[in-house]
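Sequence and structure are kept together here, with a separate record for every protein. An example record follows, reproduced without changes.
>
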Amino acid sequence: MESVSNRVTTTLTWSNSISTSSLQIPQVFSIRCTKRLRVCCASDQTQKMTVSVTGATGFIGKRLVQRLHADKHSVRVLTRSRSKAQLIFPVKEFPGILIAEERDWKDCIQGSNAVVNLAGLPISTRWSPEVKKEIKQSRIKVTSKVVDLINGSPEGVRPAVLVSATAVGYYGSSETQVFDERSPSGNDYLAEVCREWEATALKVNKDVRLALIRIGVVLGKDGGALAKMIPLFMLFAGGPMGSGQQWFSWIHLDDIVNLIYEALTNPSYKGVINGTAPNPVRLAEMCEQLGNVMGRPSWLPVPDFALKAVLGEGASVVLDGQRVLPTRAKELGFQFKYPQVKDALKTILS
């Protein structure tokens, strides 16, 4: 998803044909995504994909687009704000990337090998009834649109893969249970959001390989939970929220991007896959490690009533937690660069 709340403990492909770089369309002409000639190039050791991405301007999406572009894949940014996307992906730094507003999504998707769906309203805000409705609808509406466009594509130009984000909020919260991909859904609001989100993605054509990535708390330098936690520690005010005993199921930004990338290229990646590191920690340990790396204390807890005063019902995503394991990713042989939170934090803050 594009971002997560401060200290959130629950969060919320391709065919053998490639698009040649010589057929890149300058960004100034990218209002309409044209279908491009696909050719096979035997001299390329790595076959190139054309990938359409929703949520590309978000925390995870930006890094994914950077990775795809660096590896010479063709990227189509599906956005509702062309101006925002152009600021994040300037043509000088990202030549050849196509930016398309909603009216152009159909042509982009029909010309793609794969689609990555990361769109959704951030949950780091006070939950009014209106906001809760928007949190759910922002995910379901975009996913439904993407699925309809894929299903409506003629067989010859239909994307072969859909990688769609969901969240570990699917499992509900617990201080004692251990959750993996076989665990049932919880019964709270975020679990309901995730169930409907996933059910929408599951309507994609059965010939399309679908990978549902249930993402945990993503740790990175320029966004997500850390961006909101670091200022507190800089002010010597960092500490666990609530009891500190709630589980914190996290993943480094590079690892979640690598997992999505692998899901695009590896036909074994299908169905539900948890996007979390193999070693979740208690929130108190997370805060202690962060304090150690920053040279700041982390002993002063933030009381429950203070969080509830700020976030209302939304405080539940901070005060509740769950221990989620990436069982399927490990079965598939995925290699985590950062299995331990201490090493992840050192790398991010170095």
Observations:
- The radius of gyration is 20 Å.
